[in-house]
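Because discrete structure vocabularies remain unfamiliar, we reproduce here a specimen of the format, pairing a chain with its fold in token form:
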Amino acid sequence: MHDTQDSGSARRSKELADTFDESTLDTERWVAHYLPHWTTPDRSAARYDVVRNGLRLRIDHDQPPWRPEDGEMRVSNIQTGSWTGPVGSARGQHRHRPDGLVVRTATPTRRLWTPSSGEVEVVVSASPDPTCMVGIWLVGFEESSPEDSGEICLAELFGDRLGPDGSTVRLGIKAHHDPRLETDLADVRLPIDATTPHSYAARWDASGVRLFVDGAVVRTSAQVLAYPLQLMIDLFEFPAGPRSLSDYPKTAVVHSVAGTTGP
């Protein structure tokens, strides 16, 4: 699925910058799978195209659910790292269920961009489809400790809450399995059409977290995530009934990503 060796040069890089203007996705910057250790490669693999104005994430009609045990959810995702315990173990990133998770696919350790402090800005055009959601997250890498699992949610953009008259952006902190954190999310209504290009950014360090939309501070938190985080950018589909071939592909575009590691 991926090169089995850690990418040393990318690991040491303090910068992340991509405008997706190459003919293919740069595998020294991105893992094009969604949490591949909890499922199988055919289910975790991202569907995407490199287009004129960025990377178009797709949900296709023939795309299988990510994990059948979790329902019909489908996802195309790119992320800046991967790590997991051995096959058969319960050790792995982003344990989205309290029990019953077992590693199915051996996933090499890749620390492509996993800062403990810094800033990142992602410009996306979200999907207006009411069954879709675009997520932009910084998620704990968890390699050193399963408690290092908190999340900075830059944006969750649900298709049925977006439009020319304004859009709702969900953002904040998710504790997950980190007892030092408290989940603190807010749904913020903004005068933007999030189906067109807008920027979502975070700056985090020992003083806390600041979240921005189009360069303006929208939310702040004094909570500190002082451990490696990986960036994840996803297009999800949560089917609400029978899936019609004429409704696909469902898409969102990632126009650019820029990140800097803190001191």
The first helix runs from residue 8 to 12. Confidence is low (pLDDT under 50) at residues 1-12.
